[in-house]
Amino acid sequence: MTYEGARKRSSDPAEDMQLVERCKRGDRDAFDELMRRHERKVYNFAFRLTGNYDEANDIAAEAFVRVYTRIQSFRGDSAFLTWLFRIVTNVFLDARKRRRPRPSESLEQLVEADDRALARLAEDASVSPQAELERRERDTILQRAIAGLPEYQRAMILLYHVEGMSYEEIAAAMDLPIGTVKSRLNRARLALRHALEGSAELFAR
């Protein structure tokens, strides 16, 4: 089973590193600029992990606090965004250890099963009410399926298929060997497909 997701990256690693170096010299404006450049990515990723607006805000805020307090330790062995996603993932996993998951809300993310692509689909204003109802139903089913995955599998699905990170970047973000990343991602795909088997007709259209 293969997926080809939303593989887009917009951050300029060189500019990020310039800002990081300024942060290390105590330049608060540089840190504020790093936040502005990545706050939407951080929040969106946190929301996809949690499915809850309030929890996503908490995770995003804590992630940037950790970035601020640990920026001196960032050596640049990976892209800043990779390091940032690692921090967000760790904050999420730490939060899950401390409390039970909150009720999930809709992820604006659809999956096409049967060896098709995991992709974000733009809403079409011309769709029929029936088509829109089916879209919402698919969205809800997918959200529940992703939320039902173990936390590490959920993070890998989102990092690879939504955030567009490579195996190498995920390995750096989660501090794992590439082989482990690949095997866990494959298991996550199979688990997601199994969870969606009862709704195959909805995703085959």
Properties at a glance:
disordered N terminus; 205 residues; two-stranded antiparallel ribbon; Rna Polymerase Sigma Factor, Chain: A; Arc Repressor Mutant, subunit A; mainly alpha
Give the arrangement of secondary structure elements.
Layout: H1 13-24, H2 28-50, H3 53-70, H4 80-98, E1 110-111, E2 118-119, H5 129-147, H6 151-162, H7 167-174, H8 178-195, H9 200-203
Antiparallel strand pairs: 1-2
Helix pairs in contact: 1-2, 2-3, 2-4, 3-4, 4-6, 4-7, 6-8, 7-8
Descriptive account of the structure:
This protein starts with 12 loop residues before the first helix and ends with a helix. By secondary structure, the protein is mainly alpha-helical. Mean pLDDT is 77; it is low at 1-9 and 101-125. It has helices at 13-24, 28-50, 53-70, 80-98, 129-147, 151-162, 167-174, 178-195, 200-203, and strands spanning 110-111, 118-119. A two-stranded antiparallel sheet has the order 1-2. A hairpin with a 6-residue loop joins strand 1 (110-111) and strand 2 (118-119). It folds into 2 domains: 13-98, Orthogonal Bundle (Rna Polymerase Sigma Factor, Chain: A), CATH 1.10.1740.10; 110-203, Winged helix-like DNA-binding domain superfamily/Winged helix DNA-binding domain (Arc Repressor Mutant, subunit A). The chain is built from 9 helices and 2 strands; from the N terminus they run ααααββααααα.
